[in-house]
Amino acid sequence: MLESLIIRNFALIEDLSIDFGRGFNVLSGETGAGKSIIIGALGLILGGKSSSEMVRTGTDMASIEGLFSVSPDSAAVTMLAGAGIDTPSGELVIRRTVSADGKSRCFINGVLSNMTVLSELGALLVDIHGQHENQSLLKISLHLGMLDEFAGLAGSVDGMRGLVRELARLEEQLSALAMDDREKARRLDLNTHAIREIDAAGLRENEEAELEEENRLLSNFEKIHGAVESACETLAPAAGEVRSAAVGLESAGEHDPRLAGLAQRIRDAWYALDDITDELRAWRGRIDFSPERLEEVNERISLIQTLKRKYGEGIPEILAFRDKAAEENESIQTSDQRRAELSGEIAALQERVSRAALALSQERQKRAREMETRVMEELAFLGMAKTVFKVDIRYVRDPEGFIEVRGERIRLFETGVDHVEFLVSPNPGEEARPLREIASGGEMSRIMLAFKSVLSSRNDCETLVFDEVDAGIGGVTASAVGKKLRQVSGGHQVLCITHLPQIAAMADQHIMVSKSVADGRTRTQIRHLAHDERLAELARMLGGEVVSETTLQQAREMIEMGQGGPS
User: Fold this and answer.
1) Distance, CA of 217 to CA of 290 (rounded, Å)
2) CA–CA distance from 92 to each of 87, 95, 123, 232 (Å)?
3) pLDDT tens readout for residues 487-502
4) Which value, in Å, is the radius of gyration of the alpha carbons in the chain?
5) β-pairing, 509-518 with 521-528?
6) Angstrom distance (rounded) from CA 368 to CA 390
7) Contact of 245 with 264, CB cutoff 8 Å
8) How far apart are CA 564 and CA 111, in angstroms?
9) What average pLDDT does this structure show over 398-426?
10) Model confidence pLDDT, tens digit, residues 97-120
11) Burial, 60: exposed, middle or buried (Cβ in 10 Å; 0-12, 13-18, 19+)?
């Protein structure tokens, strides 16, 4: 549940803190006061898209912080645990910042997180239904998912996807083996030549670097050897002189202790020079210049360069090419057998997929009838008793398909064989037609609310947000919508922006949003309304700016009816 929301420097909002309660929370206020801005801020901490335009003019950064209470066994807690984020004491704090240059950062319980994690988490915490979301009902592509959500078929659909993807994988393998005899011979010849050439080279993993180093030494042998000889000739007598100096100072150190330390340092230098001279002599004894070896090294390097041009950018890649060529040859040589095996596997899987898809389709047909009944019950409650709602499930013909229904081949999708579309008939005797052809704005709001009500029992989100779901309605219908929202709030926390007193009167908590101008700047502010303040706000919503005793009495009656008894 959303406990509180803190908004700073976001659009018209300078500094705002809002506490929400359980049940039905209503936000009201004049148009332009900032109600939808508050919902926009909430959407931002749930993974919504950010922009620099969200930052209040004259400030460097906008920040939104939301405090949620979550149960230990909730999907959100499980998801966060998988991401390595703890939720101590059942509290979850999400903070999102947007800088004036458009850069955004998000923190989940103090841990810097990415937008993928935030979006996934947001979908588990809050379901926001904005005015534009009525349009989702017009998207036929979403109808199947809504039916599956109602029917609780997520597991079956995931299983269907797995089978279809496995079938596609096997078919891809079979297609890769579909090579004519001439192409097979050509590939075998090319691969065999490459294998022989690479094997003949006898390459070692780190050989190229070793050869380059040896080539560098041999190519510069005279320069290196001369430098070593010169160093030996210089250091041998020098070491003797340094030793003599050490002996002399040691003798003097018997009379002046301060010289003893210097004598030791000179002796250390003599030891070092002596060791270096020995190492140089040893190097000189080990290394011998061989023109033949230099030629061999250069030829080897040239061979490796040739193989790199053909088979890869380095020796590891060349060896990998060789292994892949060998695998391909083996696959080609056994392709006929493998093709037969794959064909059998595909046929068996097709049979399995066909049974699963048709069983899933039957279950959808059955549950679609239940959905129709439930939605029409909700529509009747919302003042659309004469509206007929239909879930149209049909197959798409596909001559290339392997699934047959009544002698006709049909298309397979990842989700099965069903194409689903919602149809309505708003008036008796009229044929049910697609929503986009029939429903008005007010009807769409109520149809969406009916869907939300039907699906709410299966919705894992504890918090549901409705941004002006009352568009295009009034009177008795508005009262029905309010009752429905209050009913839904029995199992969920509901936040609703409304302009209708009939809906606001049903709320458990009423928050008024207003704006003021000070120092030439517009600011959005909120107030949690006490009883008398609430009466005044409902009276304003009923009659406009002039609040009369009549509108106050009407407001009082609305609250009594909305709360189920005298206030």
Assistant:
1) 11
2) 6, 10, 14, 74
3) 888 888 999 988 888 8
4) 40
5) antiparallel
6) 8
7) no
8) 45
9) 93
10) 999 998 999 999 988 998 889 988
11) exposed
User: Which amino acid makes up residue 506?
Assistant: M
Contact 314, 308 (CB under 8 A): yes
Residue 520 near residue 58 (C-beta atoms within 8 A): no
Find all residues with CB under 8 Å of 395, minimum gap 6, and list them: 405, 408, 410, 411, 417, 418, 419
Compute CA 202 distance to the chain's CA centroid, rounded to the nearest angstrom: 47
Q: Checking DSSP bridges between strand 388-394 and strand 419-425, what pairing results, if any? A: antiparallel
Give the separation between CA 175 and CA 191, rounded to whole angstroms: 20
Residue 465: both structure tokens together = 């947000």
Helix (H) or strand (E) holding 422: strand 419-425
Q: How far is CA 494 from CA 138, 265, 423, in A?
A: 24, 84, 28
Domain ranges, ordered by start, for the chain: 1-130+468-529, 184-333
Question: Please, what is the Cα angle at 380 between 379 and 386, to 5 degrees?
Answer: 95
Sign of the alpha-carbon dihedral angle for 298, 303, 307, 309: positive
Tokens of 170: 């096997």
Q: Indicate the pTM of the whole model.
A: 0.61
For residue range 448-480, what is the model confidence (pLDDT) as tens digits?
A: 788 888 887 666 678 888 876 776 677 777 888
**Phi/psi of residue 386, nearest 5 degrees:** -90, 0
**Residues paired with 534 in a beta bridge:** none
DSSP assignment string, 203-215: --TTHHHHHHHHH
| Pairing label, strands 463-467, 493-497 | parallel
Distance of CA 503 to the CA centre of its chain: 36
CB-based contact 125:76 (threshold 8 Å): yes
Residue 321 confidence (pLDDT) above 80: yes
Cα dist. 345→163, 341, 349 in Å? 12, 6, 6
Dist. CA 275–CA 263, nearest whole Å: 18
Give backbone dihedrals phi and psi of 277, rounded to 5 degrees, phi first: -60, -40
Question: Which residues on neighbouring strands pair with residue 15, listed in sequence order?
Answer: 8
Q: Report how far residue 21's alpha carbon sits from residue 18's, in angstroms, rounded to the nearest whole number.
A: 10
Are the beta carbons of 526 and 513 closer than 8 angstroms?
Answer: yes
How many CA atoms lie less than 13 Å away from 333 in the CB half-sphere? Answer: 10
Six token digits for residue 216: 């560098």
CATH, domain 1-130+468-529, list 3.40.50.300, 3.30.450.20, 3.40.718.10, 1.10.10.10? 3.40.50.300
Minimal CA–CA distance to 355: which of 167, 160, 153, 166? Answer: 160
Which of 432, 415, 439 has its CA nearest to residue 144?
415
Band of pLDDT at residue 567, cut at 50, 70 and 90: very low
Count how many residues are written for the chain.
567
Do residues 478 and 468 touch, judged by C-beta distance below 8 A? no
Evaluated on CA atoms 419, 420, 423, 429, the torsion sign reads positive
